[in-house]
Amino acid sequence: MSTRDVAWDVDLVHDLFNDWDANLILSIPLSSSRERDVWFWCLEKTGHFLVKSTYKLLQMQKEAGAQPNNSDFWNYIWKLHAPPKVKDLVWRATSDCLPTKNVIEISACAGWLEAMFKQVEKAKRDDIAVLCWALWKTRNELLLVPTTTFLIEEDGWETWQRPPATKLKINVDAATFDNNGTFSFVCVARDANGSLVEAITRCQTRNTTLELAEAMGVREAISWIKQKAWYGTVVETDCLSVVQAIRSNLPFLSYFGSIISDCKLFLEQMRDVSVNFIRRSTKRVAHSLARASYFVVDRTLRSNDVFIELLHVIVNDCS
Fold first, then answer.
1. Domain check: are 242 and 303 in the same one?
2. 164 pLDDT higher than 90
3. Same domain, 114 and 175
4. Please, what is the average pLDDT of the chain?
5. Domain boundary among 82, 110, 144
6. b or e along 197-215 (b: 16 or more beta carbons within 10 Å of the residue's beta carbon)?
7. Radius of gyration for the alpha carbons in the chain, expressed in angstroms and rounded
8. Contact 172, 214 (CB under 8 A)
9. Full-model pTM
């Protein structure tokens, strides 16, 4: 590892390990905070173990149709093209064993579902089952899950908004290219006129999730602001989980969490720099550049050397 650049020494890793191990090692994102390595639960972004994610994994691994039944209605249920959790809910609903106090008094669910399944074609049964699961999930979230949110008034714009005069706005976007195991992210800085100040592209050969790539893009944008002393800049991303994690006080132990820790550390060292959530439609310029970054690798672009297609998107964004 190159400690000066906080990056893997790719050639050395490939010299010391076989291809399989080397690729696994190189897929680990490095943090500049130099925190001690810890064990973490890879099924949660926070890295903390939760029974919920374990149950979800087991349900995904469980073979469908584990309980045979010869009746037409039960065959309808077990032959649904739906996740096991959906089938489980339908089975519970038709068996009058949903965890609710009113189920003993109101037992019409089984009859209604059986009638619906007989009236519609096979594809519609899947839709009905998934819709029932979604309604049940929404009902439980409204009743049982705290409504804490980390969104602020500046979040959620559906069109690109100009920053105040003398300020800059940086839009971040990431893309993964599964065909060759690479990912990229871009940061596009624009001024109050909507004009391109500068854009950077980064592409790395590593298997990663889009969420982790977005987090690394935000970290790069904040580091870029610090390097340029662009204080008062707003960073925007359409990855809500990244924004929520940066604003949260929860400890994150995962790879994702190490990137978030870097973001928080950089933000503490600067004044008047914020990270906001936007809709995907808001960042057309960054999105266009992210898709092209596979061919424009590790470049710094300015208005005089950016390709003409991107200039058209910038002009349309500001009109």
1. yes
2. no
3. no
4. 79
5. 144
6. bbbbbbbbebebeebbbbb
7. 24
8. yes
9. 0.61
- Of 43-52, 159-168, 212-221, 308-317, minimum mean pLDDT range: 308-317
At residue 153, the pLDDT reads 64
Whole-number percent of the chain with pLDDT over 90: 16
3-state secondary structure of 170: strand
Question: What is the residue whose two structure tokens read 């400690």?
Answer: 3
How far apart CA 205 and CA 166 sit, in angstroms, is 37
- With 50 as the cut, is the pLDDT of residue 22 above it? yes
Gap between the Cα atoms of 319 and 186, Å rounded: 23
- 223 versus 299: the higher-pLDDT residue is 223
DSSP-assigned states of every residue in 75-105: HHHHT-SS-HHHHHHHHHHHTT--SSGGGTT
pLDDT tens for residues 285-316? 777 777 776 677 778 888 777 666 666 666 66
In sequence order, the 6+-apart residues with CB closer than 8 A to the CB of 36 are: none
d(CA 251, CA 287): 30
Report CA-CA distances (Å) from 210 to 80, 185, 217, 239, 274. 30, 10, 10, 9, 22
**Is the CB of residue 40 less than 8 Å from the CB of residue 47?**
yes
Residues 12 and 55 in one domain: no
DSSP structural state of residue 281: G
Check whether residue 166 and residue 220 sit in a common domain.
Answer: yes
The set of long-range contacts for 45-49, using a CB threshold of 8 Å and a minimum separation of 24, is 45/211, 45/241, 45/245, 45/252, 45/254, 45/256, 45/257, 46/250, 46/251, 46/252, 46/253, 46/254, 46/257, 47/252, 47/253, 47/254, 47/256, 47/257, 48/251, 48/253
How many domains does the structure of the chain reveal? 4
The span from the CA of 127 to the CA of 266, in Å, is: 46
Say if residue 113 is exposed, middle or buried (CB neighbours under 10 Å; 0-12, 13-18, 19+).
buried
Q: Where are the alpha helices (DSSP H) in 122-187?
A: 122-144
Residue 247 in this model has a pLDDT that exceeds 80: yes
